[in-house]
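Bench log, entry 3. Co-assembly request; chain sequences pasted below exactly as received.
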Amino acid sequence: MRAATQVFEGGFSDAVLNSQEVFRALMDAMANPGRIMLVRDLVNAPAPLTPVMAAIAATLFDHDSTVWCDRAIAGSTAAMGWLKFQTGLKLTSDPSGAQFALVHDIDVMPSLEAFAKGSSEYPDRSTTIILQIAGFSGVEALTLEGPGIENATSFTPSNLPKLFIDQWTANRATFPRGVDLVFAGRGALAALPRTTRVSRGEV
Amino acid sequence: MSDEILEASRKDDGSDGGRKAAMALLAQATSQELQAFWSQWNEKPEVETLRGPETGLVMVRGRIGGGGEPFNFGEATVTRATVRLGNGAVGHAYALGRQGEKVRLAAVFDALWQGETERRAVEDKVLAPIARRLSDDLESKRSETAATKVDFFTMVRGDD
Amino acid sequence: MYVAVKGGEAAIRNAHTLLADRRRGDRSVPAIRLDQIVEQLALAVDRVMAEGSLYDTELAALAVKQARGDMIEAIFLVRAYRTTLPRFGYTRPVDTGRMAIERRISATFKDLPGGQLLGPTFDYTHRLLDPALAEETPVETPARRVEAPEQTPRVTDILGQDGMIEADGELPEGSETGDLTREPLSFPLERDLRLQALSRGDEGFLLGLAYSTQRGYARSHPFAGEIRIGEVEVELEVAELDFPLTLGRIRVTECQMVNQFKGSSRQPPQFTRGYGLVFGQSERKSMSMALCDRALRARELGEDITAPAQDEEFVISHSDNVQSTGFVEHLKLPHYVDFQAELDLVRRMRAEHERRDGETSDTQEAAE
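Structure output for the full assembly:
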C-alpha cells in the first residue's frame, strides 16, 4: 500500500493558486516565444516526471484531455498512476489524436509530422508537445523571429528534436495548422508557438 | 436493496465487492450521519488530506430507448476526497452533491474499513445504520407508491 | 467613425440594489429559504435542473430564488455556474430498468407486470384552485400498501420479446458518444447528440413542436408506451479504483413513445419508438422529448421531411432557451451606432427618393 500512495501524493498544495501560477508562466511563454519563464517546484511526481513537466501536466490536463506519452513515461506505472490520479487524463497511443504530448526522451521522439496539426476550421485541435530538456544554456543557438518577438531573439535549449530546423520549417508551412512546443527545463520553461520562425545561429 | 448492499460489504474477504458496497453506503449517507459517527468514534486516527474535498461535475449517461447505445443527458455535481491515515491506509470517496466535509469523512471511513481490525466496527457502527435508514426510506416510498396502484375491475353489464 | 460611450455605472449599481430590494419584497414577509423551495416548489427546481442540465437541487433552488422565479433566468444562472467546475468523468449509463419507481403508467397495456402506479400525479385532479392551500393546513399522511416487491419490466421490453417493436436505439458501428458541451454541433447529428440537446431543451418549445406532430405536421401516431418516474443509481469509473463507484441516486423521468409501425421488404411491420429521459419529475417534458425524438428520426426511417418538428437543424438550433434568450435579449443592449448608421442610410434614400420625385414632376410639368 505504501508504494501505491506515491501516486496520491505530491499534487499541487493549492490547486487554484498553484495552477494559476504555472498557467501564467505558460501563457507568458507562449506570448513571448523563447523567453525563459521561471517555475517554482510546486509538485513532487514519480520519475521520470520532473517537477516542471509534472506541474505543466497538472495545470493543463483534465478529464477531457487526450494525452500521448513517450515510452519512458508511459512505461512507468508510478508516473502514469500519478498523472491519472492528479489530472484524470485520457491516454492515447496515437500521437495524431493527442491534444497534448509528454516527451521525456527527445532524441527518439516521433517527428512533429506524426502529431495532430488541427484542421483549417479548427486549427486549435492540434497537439501541444511538452518536451523535457536539461536546461536553456545549450551550446547551439537558434534565432527566433515572429509575433511576440521584437526584431529577433536567441534561444539556446540544451537539446532539440532531430533535424529540428527542417521539421519546424515544415510545421510552419502548414500554418494556421501545426503543433506548438513547450520546453520543460529545470526550474524553468519556454515555448515555441507555431507562429515563430526559427533559423540557425545567434542574433 | 440496501440490505443487499450491507450484506455485500460484510464480505470480509477484502474483495472489491465488499469495498464497493461499503463506499456506496458512505456516498449515500447524510452529512449529519457521518459527523455523528465520527464524533462517536473511539481512537480517532491521524488523518491527512491528500486531495480535496473538491467539487466537480460528472456527465450522466442514459441509454437510447432505455437499453440501447449510451447518450449524455446532463451533468451532476460530485464531490470527492482522498485521505491517508496514520497507518498509511488511503481512503477515497465520491458522492453526488457539494458536501465537502461529508465526503472527507466518507474517505476516512473507507480508509478505516480497509484495516482488518477496524472493519467490523465500521460495518456495525457506520454502515449498518446507514443501510437501515436507506432501506426504511426505500420501503416507505415503495409502499406509498404501491397504494396508488390501480386495481382494475370489470363491470358486467346487462343480463348473461 | 466609432464613438466609445462610457457611463451608467452609478445607474447600474443602483439598479442592482433595487433588484435586490424588490427580490426581497415586503420585509414583514419572511424570506423564503432554499429548503422550502426544494421541498415545496420541487417541480420548478426539477425544471431548472433539467434545462440547466445540472443535477443539484440546492443550486437549482438558489437559482430560482435569485431569479425571482424567472425560470429561464434561473436556468441561465445554473448553466453559467456549471462552467466553473471541472469535469470528473462520464458516468456509466443509468439503468432505468432498475429504477426505484415512484410513478409508472402505460397507456398501451392495462395489465402490465408491476401494475399501473399513479404516484404523486396532477392527473385526475379537477384543476380547481384549492383555497385551503392558501392557509397552512395539516396534510394527510399518504396511504401505504405493504406487498412483496414486484418486477417492473419496461413495456418496450415486453413488446420487444415477440419482435413487435424495434429494438432500443442503435448507432452506426464505431460511433463515439457525442457531447455537445465539448464539441460544437455539426449537422446532421446522430441520435445521441439530438437526445442530449432535447433533454436540456426548452420545455415550452418542445411541447409546441410535439403538439404540432399530433396536429398533423409529421404525424407519427403516438401512444405513451410507458412513463416512469423514480430514482436511479449513478455509477462512475475512476482511475484510482478498479471498480465502478456508486455516487448516489438521482430522480429522472423516462418516456417510451410507441409510434406508427413500418415495414419493408426485408422487415415485417413493427412499431417504431421515440425516447425521452429528463432530470427530475417532468412528465410533460419527457413526453415532448420522446415525440420530437421520433419526428427527428425521419431521415433514419426514410420518411419525407415535411414539417418543422422533423427538421433537425431547425429544432436543435432553437431548442436551447439560454441561447435563444441570449440572442433575443441582446437586442436590449445599446445599438446606438448601428442604428445611427441605418438612420443615415434611410435619410439618404429619402433624399434620393425626393430628388427623383422632384425630377419626375419637373418632367411631367414640362410635358404638360
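Chain B touches chain A through eight residues (CB under 8 Å). DSSP finds five helices and three strands in chain B.
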